[in-house]
Structures are given as C-alpha cells and as structure tokens.
Amino acid sequence: MAAFCGAVIYTIIGVIPGTDETAVIAPVTLGLILMGFSPEIVLAFFIAAIIAKKLTDSIPVAVAGIPGGVMAAPMVEKALVLKEKGMSDVSIKKMASGSVIGTLVAIPVSLFLATALLPLSDLIKAYSSQVFLGGAIFLALMSNAKVMSLISIFVFSLFIQAVRKFYWFTGLVPENKNVFISFFLAITIGLMLVSLLELLSKKKREKNLRDDYKETVISREKTNFFIPNPFTILDGKEVASAAIASVVGCMTFFMSPIGMTSFLGEALSSHIKDPVKKASRAISTMDALSNATYIAGTLIPLIALGVPLSPMALGPANPLFVAPPVFSLEYNMHHALQSNFVLPIIIGAAVALMITYPLAVIYSQQICKFVFEKISHEALLGLFFGIVVLIAYNEAGLINILGVLIVGTFSGLLNKKGVNFGVQFMTLYCATYVSSFVF
To answer: Is the dihedral of CA 229, 235, 236, 238 positive or negative?
Structure first.
C-alpha cells in the first residue's frame, strides 16, 4: 500500500513543471519516519516515489518542452527535436523505456556494489567528517563556479555554526543538541525564499509583470491503449547505450547526477549524424542514467555505509539517514534494516513500474493537460513550505523558524552564485568539523 501511494502521488507530481526532487520527496519521507512508520514501509514508499517521479518528469518535456524536474532539464533540447517532427509520442515512449531499463539495471548493480563496499564502512564512518569535507571539495571542483563553491564551504560552515551557537547562547536549544534536519530543509527551499524576497524589489516586480496567461502548447497524438514492451520500443543500440550508461551511473554514484546525465547522454549519442536517431539515443540514455544515478545514489550509501555520501543521499534520500529523533548517523535505516533491504526495494520498484510506466506511455497527454490546468504549482510548493515550517518548529521551537528562513535565504543566495545543492549539503554535514578550527 505504501509503494502504491508513493507511485500514484509522484506520478502526478512528476508532471508538474519545476518540482525539485529534494523539495517534494524529502519532507514527505521525513514525515513518514517521524510518524512512526516502519523502515520497510518507508523504504518501499521512497523507492516507488523516486522511480515514479523520474518516469513522469520527462513527460512535460516531450509534450510541451518544459522539464518536470531538475534532472529532466538536459533532455529538453533533444526532446524538442522529436516534438518538431511530430514525434512527441515516440519521445515519451523512448524516455519511459529508458527509465525502465535504468531501474532494472541499477537495482542489481547497486546491491552488488553495496556488498563490495561493506568492508570499508567502519573506516569511512570513523573519518566521516573528513570524508564529507573531501566530498564538498570534490563537488566544488566539479561545479562551474569552482572558486565560489570552495569559498562557500568555509563561509557556509561558519554561518551554520554561528546560528547554532546563537540558539545555545539564548538557552532556547540545549547545548548538547545540534539542529540539523531543519537546516537541511532550509537549503531545499532556499531558491524559493530568494525568489519571494526578490519580489520586494520594484525592478524585479516590473520585470516579472505579465499582461496575459502563459500559454503551453501540448501536442495531440492518437492514444494507443496497449502497453508496449520497453525492449521493443528501443532498438538494440539504444538498449545497449541505456544499459551501459546505467552501469556507469551506478559506479559514479558519488558524483552529480545531472552532470553525469548531460555528459554521458551527449557522449553516447554525439557520433550519430541523423538528428532524429541522435535525439532518440540521447533521451533514452539520459532517462536511463537519471534513474540509475538516483537509485544507486540512495542504495549504495544506505546499504554499505550508513552515511549519506552522494548527492542523492544528501538530497531527497537524506531522511533515511538523518531524521531526529528517530534516525541519526549513529543509528538509521542502514542499522534498522541490516540485511532486510532487498524485499522493500523490489516491492517499491515493481509497483512503481507496473503503475507508472503504463500511465506514462498511454495517458501522458491527458495527465499533462490535467496537471497543467487543475493543479497549482504555487499551491503545491506552498504545501511543502508549510511542512518545512512545521518540522522546524517541532525541532527547536519558534526561534528555529526564523533560523530556517535565514539559513534558507543564505543558501538560496549561494545557489544563485553557482554553489550547487551537493556542495551545500556536504558542507552542512562537515560544518561542525570545519568551524572547530575557528570557534
């Protein structure tokens, strides 16, 4: 039932343009954990949710040229090539089939790699602060704004620790308590906060004034009521490309998912001259890789290490590692499930594929039309913003709501300067260690 709910809910949310995975999945997962649901139920829900979200966030790309999420953005250019040729239905099927292959490859490969890394778990945990600092530096060097990202590691660490020290100084939070999950969620809503604050500027408001509604054109295709086989939708080379990209994505689980998606998608299709074949190869490969990196980025750190050492584990999957007072780095889902991971993972993946894949390839246009017309993007984001405020109050009272707004705004400003979420989340984990050299 949990997997079914996760699949249905995030099949719809995935179609909504601009919904960031961290902002829409992490708060709900955290809420389930805090409400006392068993680890097996939470994991099955999470796996179903992430697979459903990744399967459907490419639908608006194909039918309207708008990415449903951050990870779908690299596919826009290639999907528009097929859309202009009147092949939106082909684009949807190719991307959905790529997602299926990415999921089917990623789960066994992730389980194998997790098992291989198990002997290193104690060593990594013993030096977790140093590992997180190294991860932050690595992600900073991989980003476009290298210098700014490197500087932000030190500055953001001091800023976070300064807010914590203010809490301790006022006596509103005990000195032995480190506010964490609220600041994590603050980072996820940082860009939203900055966008709202920008509206206080007259120039910004005037720049965003509109005289009419934004028009989105959805291409009309004939609905086909049979469920196609993903292995027949893609030709042999596309299947091979999607599978290879998925394996590489699993092996590079610690790197930026969007960066790997763009890089490998282009690399495995750049030699093709025909624009339609090139676009088809690219979008199927990218979608497979997108799914694989998200699954591997969750499962490998969760099963093998028990510490979130990937952008995915630091983002949407973070509540599986840290959800005070239920989970911490010392005891989380890694310890709670131990060797009982496989069944919830398989159930979550199977339910999501059985529900979302048929809906994606048969009713994609109807889903897009319903979501674009009936579901308010702003209302949905407001709902998740409300969840963040509630969790902030629950963790440290009214003062923490103010702290979340301050940390979120600072995070959003850093993001505007090119400091990505991966660097910021890694910095949050090593903030105490970095600031210990100053305070």
So the answer is: negative
* 3-state helix/strand/coil string of 158-196: HHHHHHHHHHHHHCCCCCCCCCCHHHHHHHHCHHHHHHH
The answer as to whether 337 is a domain residue is: yes
Assigned domain for 21 exists: yes
Q: Which domain holds residue 330?
A: 2-200+227-435
Q: Three-class SS of residue 229?
A: coil
Contact 75, 61 (CB under 8 A): yes
Contact 396, 403 (CB under 8 A): yes
Instruction: Render pLDDT for 302-337 as a digit per residue (tens, 0 to 9).
Output: 998 888 878 788 778 889 998 888 888 888 898 888
pTM of model > 0.70: yes
Cα separation, 164 vs 119, whole angstroms: 35
Write the DSSP assignment of 39-93 as a string of letters.
HHHHHHHHHHHHHHHHHHTTHHHHHHS--SSGGGGGGHHHHHHHHHTT-HHHHHH
264 touches 289 (CB < 8 A): yes
Give the chain's domain count.
1
